[in-house]
Amino acid sequence: MATCGALGRLQLGGELGKLTGMAPRPSLARFLWALFKVGVTSYGGPAIVAQLREELVVRRQWVSEEEFGESLAFAQLVPGPVVPATAAHVAQRLYGPPLVFVAAIVYALPAFVLMLALSAAYFRFGSLPAVHAVFRGLGPVIVAIVGSSLISLAQPALQDTRGLLLAAFLSPLFFFQINPVLLVLAGALLGILVMPNPKQMPKGSLPPKGSRRRGLAWGLSVAGALALVLLGLATWQPSVARLGAEVSKVSVLAFGGGYTAVALLYHAFVLTHPPLVSPQEFMDGLALGQLTPGPVVITSTFIGYKVAGFLGALVATTYTFFPPACLVVTLAPHFARLRQSWAFQRAVRGALAAFVALLFHVLAQVAETALVPPWAAPAALLALLLLRRGVPVLAVVGAGAVLSLLFLA
């Protein structure tokens, strides 16, 4: 009977696909291969969203334009990198909660492998004069990348006077070394109080019957397993347990895209006492993150490798992508309500204003380290102009590396 039911659903899916112009639901292997291909070949934030849409909507027609737009809107409301959350929401729509975690692994795997190799090479050969010169020259480029990300985040977050005033109020507090997590939470609470009512949003599709219970069960189960792993590590490798706890805290609080996570990572690992990563190492890891495909939060792999080698890199990467996946499977069935909740949307706006202030603080810290030579500030300004003109990040980083090798080595 179960087999007949499954065949009936497949036949019904095929008939609906013919009527709507959409292809029937793909096999799991084909869907995961498409995600892997995007993970291997995609660079540059918003460009990755466009590539994911091209693969799933335009070429394959596995989801409609409206469904993809709804998944993207959901990803922008929850913490963590936008593209993995979008892919996870599509995976949950097509296959159910378990595939969210499989999709996270498949999408992040190429970036993890490449960043792992680059991290090992960096900590082995980074002291060589030529390598040191390249990263010294890339410092102004990293300042430009953080500055461009600040501008991009500020445009939606500070779209009215209240958002601007909230960011201005919170900004000095970051320079007093107050815990950034507390300030982000304060921004969310203040956002509920002071932000204007959001525009009425479309309700979105209703979740299938029973999906709330399944999503909650999977989310809590995986979150519990992650917590148990950290407890086990705490008795065996305390530094690795601390690493996983800090990274997971960052991953579930970073609204607004990858660079908000980068800002929290900077506070968690550079500004801690004693620091686990030096400011220069963090900028070098961020530069390597621009050379790898996928989201910039793969910089956490570099940090993990510095802290504890391969095990640290594996733990940092796992706790970067899995806690947001737990949020996706838990919150996705409630998306229609979240989208209509003025309190939730105000809180997100307040958190984004706090992240603008946090990113400004990180920009100041990075600039203090990188813009020491007299040529560095003009180089950073030129790189910023190129980025704002739409030149791909990878091209700007590559050009900076070549020029550094030619003139600074």
How is this structure best described in words?
With 409 residues, this protein is an all-alpha fold. It has one domain (109-407). It has 18 helices and no strands. The longest helix is centred in the C-terminal third of the chain and has 33 residues, at 299-331. The protein is globular and about 55 Å long. Mean pLDDT is 83; it is low at 1-21. Belongs to the chromate ion transporter (CHR) (TC 2.A.51) family.
Short overview:
This is Chromate efflux transporter. This protein has 18 helices and no strands.
Chart the SSEs and their pairings:
Layout: H1 2-20, H2 28-41, H3 46-59, H4 65-77, H5 82-95, H6 98-125, H7 129-157, H8 161-174, H9 180-194, H10 211-236, H11 238-251, H12 258-269, H13 279-291, H14 299-331, H15 335-340, H16 342-370, H17 376-388, H18 393-407
Helix pairs in contact: 2-6, 4-5, 5-6, 5-14, 6-14, 7-13, 7-16, 7-17, 7-18, 8-9, 8-16, 9-16, 10-11, 10-14, 11-12, 11-14, 12-16
Protein name: Chromate efflux transporter
InterPro entries: Chr_Tranpt_l_chain (IPR014047), CHR_Transporter (IPR052518), Chromate_transpt (IPR003370)
GO molecular function, one term: chromate transmembrane transporter activity
